[in-house]
Design brief:
This protein has helices spanning about 5-20, 30-35, 40-60, 70-75, 105-120, 150-165, 180-190, 195, 205-215, and strands at about 80-85, 90-95, 135-140, 170-175, 200. It is an alpha/beta fold. A 5-stranded mixed sheet has the order 1-2-3-4-5. Helix 1 (about 5-20) crosses helix 3 and helix 2 crosses helix 3.
């Protein structure tokens, strides 16, 4: 970290204190994510950090959301957690053809948090450092209109942007059908420029080969050109998320 970054980090910590909160429990890598997300503006980063602390305390008071609270969503077996990519980022695969728009939005939001927390935690090496990232793969193969959930996608991106800044390394979108193009254009309006730059729409053989090279065939399932089997997220056992 250079002198300028150190100064911005110190300023951010001071701003957080002025807002009546504390950064005591968090390492610099966590705080740096908020700084990067707010273009290295210490004041804006502090406000974002305090907003995140308040949200976390009210939405996830016990520190994690257990499977039992999102059982309906898990039973669809639409989310898979495949291990670490070549760059050692956890890889989450979303099978959109197994998803249907949620009738219970508060529960769906809990599901989004459950997923993101578990995927990120699967990248911890012993304990959290604070700068861990994830790779998402959204597979649109064989989706039909009843699977389309623009609201759900927007919720996912809004949570990533507001509460999980700089956690997304890349999102690959595979097998996008023609009717989804206009939906994606609408959804993408809700994305910040930095988020949009991390989205890769894989649309030809060359891009697919690059996707396999970047993520790694050891964690990708055979249907994507890899060597792994799909592993449902609820079948992945991690050390306790309570700490």
């Amino acid at each position: 970290m250079d002198k300028n970054q150190e100064l911005k980090l110190t300023q951010m910590k001071n701003f957080v204190q002025k807002l009546g909160s504390s950064t005591e429990k968090y390492g610099d890598p966590t705080l740096e994510r908020f700084l990067i997300a707010r273009s290295m503006d210490p004041n804006k980063a502090a406000k974002m950090f305090v907003s995140w602390q308040k949200w976390r305390a009210s939405f996830v008071p016990s520190g994690f959301i257990p499977d039992s609270e999102v059982i309906d969503q898990l039973e669809a077996k639409k989310i898979y957690l495949q291990g670490l990519s070549k760059d050692e980022f956890p890889v989450m695969i979303i099978k959109a053809n197994k998803h249907y728009p949620a009738k219970d939005q508060p529960q769906f939001k809990k599901f989004v948090v459950h997923l993101l927390d578990k995927v990120i935690a699967s990248g911890f090496k012993g304990k959290e450092i604070g700068n861990e990232k994830l790779i998402g793969v959204l597979d649109l193969h064989q989706i039909c209109y009843k699977n389309v959930d623009a609201r759900g996608l927007i919720t996912g991106f809004q949570f990533l942007q507001a509460y999980y800044p700089e956690r997304l390394a890349k999102l690959y979108i595979l097998n996008m059908p023609w009717f989804f193009v206009s939906i994606w254009k609408m959804v993408s309006r809700f994305l910040e420029k930095a988020t949009l730059e991390k989205v890769v729409i894989v649309s030809n053989e060359e891009e697919k080969n690059q996707f396999i090279r970047e993520v790694g065939e050891e964690v990708l399932p055979e249907e994507f050109g890899g060597k792994a089997k799909l592993i449902a997220i609820q079948d992945v056992v991690l050390p306790s998320l309570e700490d």
